[in-house]
Amino acid sequence: MSLLSINDIFEFAVTIEKNGEKYYRKIAANFSEPEIRKLFTYLADEEVKHAQLFSELLTGLGKNELAEIYPEEHINYLREYVSHQIFADEKLGREAEKIHSAEAAIEFGIWREMDTILFYQELKTHLDQIRTAQIDKIIEEERKHFIKLVELKKEIS
User: Fold this and answer.
1) Which residues contact 43 (CB under 8 A, 6 or more apart)?
2) 111-129 burial by CB neighbour count: b if 16+ within 10 A, else e?
3) For 119-133, what is each residue's pLDDT tens digit?
4) Given this structure, which CATH class describes domain 6-156?
């Protein structure tokens, strides 16, 4: 068995947010429609804020191990999920190049926001109340992003 540290959790979160920013900026640059560009630039800026918050939460944390949580296989699963599923950095360019319509960009963003929310929901179950409240704020922001994307999808459909 291995232990999952608070540092690991916040490092996962920083990675998710940084990769999300790259994705949203690339999508914004691919579209000429002002509404689409504005939305994806806004989402990218929000991801920067979230990464900054998680980085601040990481600052000053020591080797603060949590109680035994998951076997090593599950920790590896979480790392791989962040690396390959939610705004996967190595897939970012390939995914963005395939998106040629506003609908496809929005749909991809919707699924990434949902994946992010689910991931944060799982991670927060292993945190103390103070950190859980901080994660809840981020989850609420991600939900707002999801709603903005869904509303825009309805408008352009």
Assistant:
1) 20, 24, 109, 145, 148
2) ebbebbbebbeebbebbee
3) 888 777 766 776 788
4) mainly alpha
- Domain positions in the chain are 6-156
Q: What is the 3-state secondary structure (H, E, C) of 5-59?
A: EHHHHHHHHHHHHHHHHHHHHHHHHHCCCHHHHHHHHHHHHHHHHHHHHHHHHHC
- What is d(CA 156, CA 147) in angstroms, rounded to the nearest whole number? 14
The reported pLDDT for the residue numbered 6 is 66
pTM comes to 0.75
